[in-house]
């Protein structure tokens, strides 16, 4: 670890799960626009669905997701009625033209839903859209929610991947972030989903949390590896209290600095790689035969709002409050406020409140950013072949970056390459190709 590099490149930048990034979406994209874009999807187009459940029965103080705590089920039941209405509206606009290849339940806590509602929602989606026989169905799970009925319901709707947040198994860290979850609870869930035929398990870890130490990171990583998950995500905690007020419950004086964060990430990475996992992008790992590792090796890895993915669908359709979708024409986002979201869709409409129509320049820069985030390199010749003379502006920017920042970015023949020393700072590297960065007042988390 070179602390000079940390000081130089750890400045806050976006996470680049989209380009342009969400702060640059505007109200110019309306529900009417989204309806037109949905109607334009051709017959046979592939689609992945994202279903957002914006409720938890406890609020983790580190969380930056769009969610709220509820101890009553009535708001959840009311929300599900609105979600049902939105599914119906989008199904009516797309008809039977789409081939659904993936479905992801996120939150919040999707496993907060009662077993009967899990079954009803899964059935409603299959009745409304045509699913491919090998469609992947992934679910974000909170072990504290789970019981046998929920396990059975998730198996019944065809879950193929379970994703569990571990964060850190150290009890002191857990208390400080209001996320108490034992190793035994986590193992119980992993064993239960595998017993029901779920072939893929993903575990999420966090570094950069209060009270974390190299010892606690090492211990947590060892416990995670003992469960032999198919995938591991190793995220840096994003401290954004100006966006998520509950993060003010975390004492900033307890947070490690950028150099300590990077050292924690390196300790976990070293142990995960030594256990036989392959690195995927900047913060994911997978067993060699997992589809994510295969995609990384073959150059087909993608990146979207769920992070690194193998999803090659023509469209991503977001369902639920705050959900973001991507169609060939651009991005759309639903109303984040659950009450207003419910009002809009129950009135028979869509809930789109903002988005962005992609220009040719947006598509080019999006492609460059995605390839650097996924492959750590980009081809000069492929840029010209794909985007013609327009690509020369980006190539000039890459040449300048390679000349001025050789420690992290270089040119090797026809390719521009992120160096090994530069990989932890890839978000800072791709920020150089972001034509929107600096516009507006958006704030971001640190880059490592």
What layout of secondary structure does this protein have?
Blueprint: H1 3-9, H2 31-39, E1 45-53, E2 55-56, E3 68-69, H3 74-94, E4 98-107, H4 115-128, E5 130-141, H5 148-156, E6 161-167, H6 171-177, H7 183-195, E7 200-207, H8 214-226, E8 231-236, H9 258-274, E9 278-280, E10 284-286, H10 291-298, E11 302-304, E12 307-309, E13 315-319, E14 324-327, E15 330-334, H11 338-346, E16 352-357, H12 360-375, E17 377-379, H13 380-387, H14 391-404, E18 409-412, E19 415-418, H15 426-430
Parallel strand pairs: 1-4, 1-13, 2-3, 4-5, 5-6, 6-7, 7-8
Antiparallel strand pairs: 8-10, 9-10, 11-12, 14-15, 15-16, 17-19, 18-19
Task: Give a written overview of the molecule.
- This protein is of the alpha/beta class and 448 residues long.
- It has helices at 3-9, 31-39, 74-94, 115-128, 148-156, 171-177, 183-195, 214-226, 258-274, 291-298, 338-346, 360-375, 380-387, 391-404, 426-430; strands at 45-53, 55-56, 68-69, 98-107, 130-141, 161-167, 200-207, 231-236, 278-280, 284-286, 302-304, 307-309, 315-319, 324-327, 330-334, 352-357, 377-379, 409-412, 415-418.
- The protein has a 9-stranded mixed β-sheet with strand order 9-10-8-7-6-5-4-1-13, with helices on both faces.
- Strand 7, helix 8 (214-226) and strand 8 form a beta-alpha-beta unit.
- Helix 3 packs across helix 11.
């Amino acid at each position: 670890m070179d602390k000079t590099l940390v000081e130089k490149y750890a400045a806050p930048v976006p996470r680049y799960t989209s380009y342009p990034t969400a702060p640059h979406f505007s109200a110019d994209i309306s529900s009417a626009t989204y309806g037109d874009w949905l109607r334009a999807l051709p017959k046979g187009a592939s689609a992945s669905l994202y279903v957002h459940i914006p409720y938890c029965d406890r609020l983790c103080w580190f969380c930056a997701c769009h969610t709220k705590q509820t101890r009553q089920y009535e708001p959840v039941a009311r929300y599900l009625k609105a979600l049902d209405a939105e599914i119906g509206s989008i199904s009516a606009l797309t008809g039977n033209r789409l081939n659904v290849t993936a479905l992801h339940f996120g939150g919040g806590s999707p496993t907060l839903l009662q077993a009967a509602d899990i079954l009803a929602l899964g059935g409603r989606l299959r009745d409304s859209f045509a699913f491919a026989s090998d469609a992947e169905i992934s679910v974000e799970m909170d072990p504290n929610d789970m019981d046998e009925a929920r396990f059975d319901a998730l198996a019944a709707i065809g879950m193929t991947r379970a994703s569990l947040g571990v964060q850190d198994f150290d009890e002191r860290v857990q208390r400080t972030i209001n996320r108490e979850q034992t190793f035994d609870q986590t193992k119980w869930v992993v064993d239960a989903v595998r017993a029901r035929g779920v072939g893929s398990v993903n575990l999420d870890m966090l570094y950069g949390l209060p009270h974390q130490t190299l010892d606690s990171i090492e211990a947590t990583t060892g416990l995670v590896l003992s469960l032999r998950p198919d995938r591991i995500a190793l995220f840096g905690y994003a401290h954004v209290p100006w966006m998520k007020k509950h993060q003010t419950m975390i004492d900033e004086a307890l947070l490690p600095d950028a150099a300590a964060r990077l050292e924690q990430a390196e300790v976990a990475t070293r142990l995960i790689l030594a256990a036989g996992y392959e690195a995927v992008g900047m913060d994911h790992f997978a067993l060699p035969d997992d589809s994510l590792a295969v995609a990384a090796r073959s150059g087909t890895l993608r990146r979207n709002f769920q992070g690194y993915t193998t999803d090659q669908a023509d469209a991503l359709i977001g369902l639920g409050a705050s959900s973001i979708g991507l169609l060939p024409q651009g991005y759309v986002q639903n109303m984040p406020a659950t009450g207003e979201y419910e009002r809009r869709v129950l009135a028979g409409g869509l809930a789109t409140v903002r988005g962005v129509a992609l220009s040719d320049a947006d598509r080019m820069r999006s492609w460059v950013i995605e390839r650097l985030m996924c492959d750590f390199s980009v081809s000069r010749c492929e840029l010209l072949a794909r985007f013609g003379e327009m690509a020369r502006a980006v190539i000039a920017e890459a040449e300048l970056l390679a000349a001025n920042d050789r420690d992290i970015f270089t040119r090797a023949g026809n390719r521009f390459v992120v160096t090994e020393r530069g990989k932890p700072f890839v978000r800072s590297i791709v920020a150089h190709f972001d034509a929107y960065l600096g516009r507006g007042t958006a704030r971001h988390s640190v880059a490592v």
